[in-house]
Backbone:
């Protein structure tokens, strides 16, 4: 039930990222609800759960948009794992720090996607301009979005039936 | 070798290797497999709902805060309809004259007829490196890979993948896209390539391989010429923005402003082409 609930949350987040946010006209900035949920899962449930959640998000995106199969799955798998690994190295459970972690993970995710795109021969243009105009502001928006979202999700994900049974995987 | 004891890390590395193999060995399929189709249909269905809600909310607030715009838009549309009706009348007369002249010359021609499948844009790629989006029509509706996609404004792109009830469209502004085109006024041929988002903040394309002696002017219209066999001929692509652009040994390059507003794309049409040979007596 916990996995199903998380999957539905991720599906809704991906839908918001792809169907609603592009219509809002945020000067072509693209914060990511799915990344916020991924980081929240990373903080609350650990490395394996966040890696697999990232894989699920990526597979959902691959079904729709993948330039090659596995592109977004790989990007989000690595981002999910990195989020949990970064948190495990001494971060506190502080919403503001989680927001900063989200900013970092957003940039990491875009960086991995850029590297893979370059390997595929896709032109990404002026990387510095891309970073200043699009990536950094989008990452900051994702970070700001994650703060209240994490506070909501933390209460939800650790309550009742959602509490993870410790079986020694992480 | 502490990482060997880190089970999540090992699982992540294993999945990464599998995904890399899948990515570079199998590439991208044109038609979805059964499992992909099922997942895609479910996902696109959910995203259609969110897209519909977002459109509805957006329209509500737009009409709420600017009702007078509707009246102005109404008047403008009526004027445009009147102009278009006049143009249709003129074209019908020209077509009749054309038919008479062909008959006189015993002209043998290939009649190309277009049919259209209308579809709605459901969702867009959330990244910055690819300009693709998904529409709610697939192979069950007659959509096939490499079908051209247009709107009333002009050429949008082509179908690159199909599912049962959805398809993925690669826009002409995608950096992987190439369209063979002709400048309508001068009849110079070239290739219109999409540009990376960081290279063109206004969503422009660039037209390359133009003759060095081509005399283009800002505002010149560019249309598809059908070379390459993917995009049919005669569809409006965009207008020339800058003429004093870079030239190289391979030809002149200019910037093109696409006719379609990709930021506000909602409804599109997939073009189906059928050709019959019609021999005139």
Residues:
């Amino acid at each position: 039930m916990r996995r199903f609930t998380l999957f539905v949350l991720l599906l809704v987040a991906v839908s918001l990222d792809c169907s609603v946010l592009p219509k809002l006209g945020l000067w072509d900035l693209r914060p990511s609800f799915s990344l916020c949920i991924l980081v929240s899962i990373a903080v609350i449930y650990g490395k394996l759960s966040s890696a697999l959640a990232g894989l699920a998000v990526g597979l959902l995106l691959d079904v729709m948009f993948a330039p090659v199969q596995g592109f977004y799955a790989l990007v989000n798998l690595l981002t999910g794992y990195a989020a949990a690994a970064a948190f495990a190295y001494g971060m506190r459970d502080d919403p503001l720090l989680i927001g900063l972690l989200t900013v970092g993970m957003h940039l990491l995710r875009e960086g991995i996607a850029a590297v893979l795109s370059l390997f595929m021969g896709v032109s990404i243009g002026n990387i510095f301009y891309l970073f200043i105009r699009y990536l950094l502001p989008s990452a900051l928006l994702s970070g700001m979005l994650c703060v209240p979202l994490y506070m909501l999700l933390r209460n939800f994900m650790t309550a009742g039936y959602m509490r993870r049974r410790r079986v020694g995987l992480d | 070798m502490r990482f060997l004891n880190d089970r999540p890390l090992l699982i992540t590395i294993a999945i990464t290797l599998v995904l890399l193999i899948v990515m570079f060995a199998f590439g991208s399929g044109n038609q979805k497999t059964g499992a992909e189709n099922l997942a895609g249909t479910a996902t696109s269905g959910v995203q259609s709902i969110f897209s519909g809600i977002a459109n509805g909310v957006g329209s509500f607030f737009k009409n709420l805060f600017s009702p007078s715009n509707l009246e102005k838009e109404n008047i403008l549309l009526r004027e445009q309809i009147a102009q278009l009706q006049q143009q249709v009348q003129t074209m019908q007369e020209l077509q009749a004259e054309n038919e008479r002249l062909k008959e006189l010359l015993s002209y043998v021609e290939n009649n190309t007829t277009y049919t259209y499948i209308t579809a709605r844009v459901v969702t867009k790629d959330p990244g910055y490196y690819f300009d693709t989006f998904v529409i709610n029509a697939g192979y069950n509706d007659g959509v096939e890979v490499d079908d051209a996609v247009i709107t009333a404004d002009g050429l949008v792109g082509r179908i690159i993948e199909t599912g049962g009830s959805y398809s993925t469209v690669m826009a002409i502004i995608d950096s992987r896209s190439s369209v063979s085109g002709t400048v309508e006024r001068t009849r110079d041929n070239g290739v219109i390539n999409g540009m990376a988002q960081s290279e063109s903040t206004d969503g422009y394309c660039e037209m390359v391989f133009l003759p060095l002696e081509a005399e283009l002017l800002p505002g010149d219209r560019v249309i598809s010429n059908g070379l390459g066999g993917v995009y049919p001929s005669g569809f409006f692509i965009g207008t020339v923005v800058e003429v004093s652009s870079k030239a190289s040994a391979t030809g002149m390059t200019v910037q093109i402003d696409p006719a379609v507003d990709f930021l506000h794309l909602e409804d599109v049409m997939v073009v189906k082409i059928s050709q019959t040979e019609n021999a005139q007596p």
